[in-house]
Structure formats: structure tokens, C-alpha cells
């Protein structure tokens, strides 16, 4: 489907009344403070892109790339505009017009192969434990990384040597009587960077009467691909994961990752699968997806007796 004919581009731009409410909520605009970084500015930029008033250049992509895709503006827009969908559609269009080999490899190849990612993380963990990462930082080698990777590298501290998947079984039986069959959507960040969270999640589900299934061959939810203009790859990943969970016949699909939860929502799957024969499957899948905390409280009805003996600041 042509960029101009995509539902978000064709139907939603005209809704914007330039009220500016999104500016009050946008964390990026709060930091940068310029109109082009505000959701309203992004809507206007997409409109100019659609109408041919600006060229589909890397500079335009950079401006639209300032959006975190957090959906705060979309959730609070009085006119009901899904700004993040507009932004994602524009990024995909711009990516097609400005192909990048590094991005094609990272999101079209590397990030679609869990085994390749697992081995790379193991090498990175070893390099970190040997002090090679610190050495590379000290002599400036990390500054040579392309694009945003030099900034992303800074947050990769204490990389675990083993992924969660390598420590968890594909099936964990319920302790005691089985109440539910639960599929666990193990996200990339949890799997490779926080395996202890995955182990705790499976443990608490099992202890509360859930049979836990982790599909073999599960891949990324697709959010990094959507955010980086690789909508076609995100669609392929989504369809792949739908098929895996369909075979398990589970009652619920839970995830402890906020990014995965948002990506697997009914609204987002409708956007990603628009125009494919998997739209109904996507809706049925999304109906079973639930954040782990919500599932523990609303479905399993776990009651925690918390004694508060001091004041806490919660963010």
C-alpha cells in the first residue's frame, strides 16, 4: 500500500486541530523545547511529507526519530490521533526511500535470529568480564560505532553470561492443581539482559497454579523494527509469533516487558497487520495478552499483605 493510502496517513492527519495538548505531555518536547520535536510538529511533518512539500530525506527521518513511540500523546489526544502510528508509517516510508545497509543487517537479519543474538550477547558478556569493553571505551573505539549504537553501548553494563531461555524449560508444570495454561512471551531485554526477572516470573506463575509454556523459536515482538522503519520485518515477526502461540492452545499470554505489552496490544497488532489475512488472528491473540502484574492481580487474585512502616516515593 502506498504511503499516502495508509489508513493513519489518509484518515488521521486531518483530525489535528493544533491545540498543543500533546506538547504538555511529550517527554522529548519537555527536554528539547522546539516545535519540531513535539507530537503536533510530527503530525505537521508527516502531512508535508504526504503532500510532497518536503523531500523524504534522512534529515526528515532524523526529526521524526526524536519520538520515543511511548504513545502518551496518542492516549491523551482530544482528537483521537494515533501520532505514534503516523510516525511509524512515515519512518517506514523514509526508510524505503533511504536504505541503509547497517540498519538492514541489524533489524532485517541480526534482530530476527535469536540464536545469533544469544551468541553475540555471550561474546559481549565475555568481553566485558575480560575488561575489553572498558578498554575500548578508554581509547575511544566505542565512539566509532555507527548511528545510535555508540550511545546504546553505554547502557550495556553487567551483561549476564547466560540468557533466560538457556536456563528455563519450554514447559514448566504448575505446582499443585493446574488452573491455567499460560504462554510466556519472553522479550529480548528480559531474556538477554535480565534473566533473573524471567526466572522469577515463571516461578511465581508456576507456584500459583499455572502451566507455563515458552515457545521454541520465539522472536522479538517487533517494536525495535517498527521504531526504525522496518515495518515489513515487524509484520513478519508478528506473524511468526502468532503461529507459535496458536499451536500451544494457552488461556493467556503474559509478558513482563512494557514494550512487548504495548506492541502486542489489539490496537497495535491491527496497525501492523493491516491489509493482511492475519488481522483476525492478531485480534484473537491480543485478546489473550496481559501484563504479568495485571494477570497476577486480576486473574490469579494474588493478595499481598504489605506492612508499610515508612513513606515511599513512587515514580
Summarize the structure.
The chain has 19 helices and five strands.
Describe the structure.
This protein is mainly α and 315 residues long. It folds into 3 domains: 95 residues, Fumarate Reductase Iron-sulfur Protein, Chain B, domain 2, CATH 1.10.1060; 52 residues, no CATH class; 135 residues, Rossmann fold, CATH 3.40.50.1860. Helix content is 51%, strand content 6%. It has a 5-stranded mixed sheet. α4 packs across α7 and α17 runs antiparallel to α18. The longest helix has 18 residues. It is globular and about 65 Å long.
CATH class of the largest domain: Alpha Beta
Number of strands: 5
Provide a count of the helices: 19
Spatial order of the strands forming the largest sheet:
1-3-2-4-5
